[in-house]
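Need the bound structure for 2-acetamido-2-deoxy-beta-D-glucopyranose, inputs here:
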Amino acid sequence: MEYQQLIIAFCFYSLFVQQSQLTYAGKHLCPPPPPPPHEAVYLLQLKQGLTVDPNAYRNGCDSEAEAKTLSWNATRDCCEWGGVTCNAFTGHVIGLDLSSSCLRGTINANSTLKKLGHLQRLNLAFNKLSDFPLGNSISELSSMTHLNLSHSGNMIWEMQIPAVLSNLSKLVSLDLSWHFTEFQFGLTTFRSLLQTKPIWRYLSLRGTGMFGNISESQIFHLPNLQVLRLGDNPLLTDTLPNFHRNFSGSVLELDFSNTGIFGKVPGSIANLHSLWRLNLLNCNLSGSIPESLGNLTAIRELILTGNNFTGNVPSTISKLSKLVYLDLSSNHFRGSIPESIGNLTAITELALSDNSFTGNVPSTIRKLNKLSYLSLSSNNFEGSIPDIFANFSELSFLDFDTNSFTGPLPFSIATLTRLESLYLQNNSLTGPLPSNISGFQELQILDLSFNCFTGATPPWLFHLPSLFSLYVQHNQLTGKLPNELKSNYVEYSNIDLSYNKLQGEIPDWMFSTSMGRLDLSHNFLTGFEKQVWPSGSLQYLNLENNFLQGTLHQSFCDMINLEFLILAQNNFSSSIPDCLGNSNSFISILDLRMNNFHGEIPRFLPTGLQYLSLYGNQLRGQVSRSLVNCTSLEALDLGNNKLNDTFPIWLEKLPNLQVLILKSNLFHGPIGDLESEFPFPELRIFDLSCNGFTGTLPSNFFKNFRGMMDLDEENTEITQASNRTHRDYLYHVSLVIKGNEYDMGITSIMTSVDLSSNRFEGDIPNSIGNLSSLVLLNLSHNSFLGRIPAEFAQLQQLESLDLSMNRLIGEIPSLLSSLTFLEVLNLSYNHLAGRIPIGKQFNTFPNDSCCGNPDLCGFPLSKECGNNNESPLEHDDDDDSYFMSGFTWEAVVIGYGCGMIFGLLIGGLMFLFEKPKWYVNFAEDIAQHIAANKRTRQKKRRGLRMN
Ligand SMILES: *[C@@H]1O[C@H](CO)[C@@H](O)[C@H](O)[C@H]1NC(C)=O
Ligand SMILES: *[C@@H]1O[C@H](CO)[C@@H](O)[C@H](O)[C@H]1NC(C)=O
Ligand SMILES: *[C@@H]1O[C@H](CO)[C@@H](O)[C@H](O)[C@H]1NC(C)=O
Ligand SMILES: *[C@@H]1O[C@H](CO)[C@@H](O)[C@H](O)[C@H]1NC(C)=O
Ligand SMILES: *[C@@H]1O[C@H](CO)[C@@H](O)[C@H](O)[C@H]1NC(C)=O
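Answer from helper R.:
Posting the output first, comments after.
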């Protein structure tokens, strides 16, 4: 009854409204009429089908309070409900904005949504609606002008989109961005739709998984188009179209970022004379920028980042006087920056990084005093950094790193008051740092590393009130670190002063509670008698290569957050504190190489260890049995101590162990029997040299060392530690490589087995032939008997093979000549006989690679083989007489020097001296590693700035 009356009332009311719309023409005469009540009912029914869930969309809403439907209740006029807009005259619901309302649920064909026949604007963005064959119900909403379904959930549209949308004849704005449709669809399915929609002004299909060819879709043939966003659809391809005059005049924004657009930018781009924003980030565009770009005089944002553009930047760019944002980074632009860049006076963000720009930085940049972001990094700029910053009151990000800048730091940089990040690393800047500054009060990150700054560290360097990261490593700074700081300035969390010439003691404040990463390695610091350590947040402590000496007290272990502890190459002379192995220790990198630590290895060690190096100390006793619990251990270097133990065969089960170095200790006895089916499964560097090991090698010993078989170059880097929160730490080991000992960081593939200078005997196991990726093999100075296994011919990666000073007999297997990488071969002082194989590598080895085998003949020895091919002679094993014949021990010791610690002693018996291939790789690795770090950071920066 009541309902019927309402309907009648509504009819009258509609009549009234139709007339009033004619006559009122927008004047406010009466208070608006109430909306028709059934629309409220439809809305309430719509609400019933949905639930409010704060987790519905992660950026959508933080709390239920943000759900607009909460205010929907029958006691109030529905025009006052959250998100509902009514027509002021008719009272009809014409707008529904439920964006970011924490909604979850279904809007399907039965939903009452379709009954809101006057709806003009619908926004369901940022919700998590599912099963959403919305299509059919939406097609009934024929008044719709603006439809926004961006980030609204999963819809099953498939091919019906055009059909559904074609009913919405008034639609001018459609936003489907980030709609993860169940079926990706081709852009061409839009073609028919576009032909019926000449009035479209706004179309966003970003991140919809669309594919296909843009020109086929004729998407540009929309005469009223203002905004077109097709970004984040990598499968969309095509060249940019010719921008025809007829369709270009109204375009305000084009977004093709992260699509497969390729080819050149057409000169017709000039027809987009109203264009406000052009985003071509990360496409495959190439060629040079047309001069006509200068005609886009309305443009404010121009983003060409991450393409393959080449050539000079046209000087016409200086005509873009409204430009506020210009990003040309990560292309191949060359030439110098035109002076006329100073005309872009509106610009606030300018990024030219990662190109091949050259020349000086034009001083006209001084006119761009609205800049807040300026990046010229990773180019070939040279000359001094011009002193142009005096008026840059807004500059917060300044990045000139990785260029060839010389000269001193321009004074005006230190006056920048809003600066938050300053990157000047990887240049050749010189001179002392300014002794006084007037800016930098908001500076958070300061990177001056890899330059040539000299002089003392000025006090302000440690007094910047907002700074948390200070990178000054790889300079020539001298003097002492300040002892005391004003207490409120101790908020630094990251200081890197490594590779300078700093002297004196390390002040206590550096271990303050905020410090997370402290690197003072490679300086001239002294002392270290700290009694009390703060239990701070320090995670990374690197004091490598100083002159520190003293004792590590128990309280050292109070630094309970420590993960990286590197004290290598100092003069610490205590025992290693037992407490390091406390169960709450997080230490994963423990590097105490080359000190004077004495006593025994602690009975318990941190179970999370990944790298443990105690190389070059005075440690005695046994290998700590607790290592068996360190299942993450990747590298263990105990070389050059006085450890007296048998072979720790119990390490065979450590699943990640890649490096095991026990050389130059007092290890003794036989290797023992392997238990596992796959012992030492990841082992790549295995060094037992210069010990007292005895006995025969088990015949299957090398059979299942999978780490040295069929290495795939991609997957073998020791990277676990680098996945941590800190910059990479290179594992260091000391290795004899082709007769020279190197202290080197391991990052790339290297495989080595060194059992030299022990007392192993018996046959060389054939199973060595399984180690198909082995690069270095040294079995010299043992008592191996028998023949050289023919299986050695399978060691196709081998670069160095040393079998000298054993008791090997028989002929040299002729297949060894097929080892094409072999650079170093030493078979001298055995009992080999017969003809030396000829061909390939063997022709390159010098004479002494085979000397001391009286029964060998042929090239390179001067002894020629008889024509009758005399059979090899068996030797009677008379060692003494053999060793006395023809050479002295001294020559041998020089070459292999057990206990030789570092340096480049060239072995007396070694001949080819080239840079080993690994070593070269290693240097390249560092360079790549630096570059990779940079890239990551740049990406991060860019990521922060896009979207
Ligand atoms: C719509 O309602 C009808 C009748 O209640 C039902 O049979 C049908 O399954 C519903 N459709 C959807 C998509 O829920
Ligand atoms: C769609 O709605 C979202 C969220 O309110 C908004 O950010 C976006 O700009 C809207 N799209 C259009 C075309 O207005
Ligand atoms: C451009 O507009 C003119 C005049 O309206 C028309 O004659 C011409 O055919 C149009 N060109 C295209 C490519 O649509
Ligand atoms: C970039 O362009 C150069 C020269 O035109 C070409 O050799 C190179 O392959 C291109 N690189 C990419 C990633 O397209
Ligand atoms: C090694 O230890 C054993 C027993 O613990 C001892 O007999 C031997 O003398 C030690 N060797 C050396 C060289 O110290």
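Comments: Confidence is low (pLDDT under 50) at residues 1-29, 714-727, 868-947. The CA atoms of residues 678 and 704 lie 5 Å apart.
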